[in-house]
Amino acid sequence: MKNFYTILLVFTSLGAMSQTTFYTESFESTTGYSFPNGSGVGTSNQDFYGRTDSAGAPPQETFTYSGFDGTFFIAGEDIDGAITGSLGQVYLDNIDISGKLNLQFTAAFASGTDMDIDGVADSISVEVRIDNGAWALIGRFRADSSTFTSTSGPFNGQFAEDTNGDGYGDGTRLTGNFTDFSWQINGSGDSLDIRISLDLQSGDEEAAFDNVRIAGLTTTGINEVSFDENTIKVFPNPTAGIITIETLTSGKIIQLISIEGKVLKEIQSAKNQERLDLSELANGTYFLKVGVKMRKVILSR
Fold it and tell me: Which of 73, 74, 154, 159 could be stapled to 210 by a disulfide with Cβ–Cβ 3.0 to 4.6 Å?
């Protein structure tokens, strides 16, 4: 019962928290995204990349998709026959993530079951960056080696999620019916950029995606200003593992709290400076509570 009241008190201090989808893009209009490498239809009957629909798709499209949101989606086949190079990309830029924590990317992906995906050439990937930092790969599809039908090499397979990063699909396979996949986005900030890439290099390799969504925890009631930095200091923040809490009053209770409101660590200060080791925790956002004061702590390695 004591633990229950502790967690209840934490939620009261943190204020209301709710996981919400705050950004969506279903490509129903021609604005809100860009094609940095271009889009178009080639001269062959199997070369295209861009925004399309099933009813009025380019004649190059050889596979009929289902389960997409609305009317339009992004699709490509043998992209190097339609644009310069085999890499078709969509940028979703400057998504406002201020005040959002625990970010999650979700989108629907599809590919035919007889699309001849090659192991060394073809891929679908999703990358993100926060506040113009480095791009980080969060999700990828590659050829599932167990589906190869060619005996001359790693050729003619199906796309599947590459869950272990070894360059081959080992997870859920893609089909012609759009299916949602979700991946966590580490970190927080003010602006999020997304880069979705289709690398399709040969004759009838084909893939598509649609309905991009970003969800996160929206927090209210956190008063970081009330954490008087002239009296109590926390450094470094962001931290790679260990934080120092300085100028404490002896006997103060110090709690480290997850964004779900769970008390992960609790110590009682015995001097005016204490160290707290976060190295066994996952990267992300946490809250440090000292008495009635609260402050956000970012763990980033």
Answer: 73
